[in-house]
Design a protein that fits this description.
Layout (H helix, E strand, L loop, with lengths): L3 H12 L4 H11 L5 H37 L4 H45 L13
Length: 134
Amino acid sequence: MTSITDVRKLMEAAVGKLSPAKAEALARSLLKGEGKDRVSKAAQELLEWSQKNRQRIADLVRAEVRSQLAAVGVATKDELDALKKRVRELERGAAPKRATTRKPATRKATTRKATSEAAPAAGGGGGTTERQPA
């Protein structure tokens, strides 16, 4: 009959890292009176079971962390890498355009000058022009 201590040891083996020596001792305690081959086989099965359970727990934790980060709105590493790549592409593509954008900027300044000179002539009055008597 399995004791509560054996059950506790099994649970610890499921969650913690089970060494081959601990697996052998656990198998011996569970299979009292069984042959050495049976105990060795059980110890190997316990080791495999423990490793699978640790992997399942790690996967569950990873999935939960990913879910919580997404819920909060934190970007993933893949998303950040994609954004960095996009920024680099835009910077490379924008470099030649910057040189061409400067030329229209000077034209606009010339246009503004002409517009500002034309405004007082149209009677928009800045107060500096002399008025002619009517």
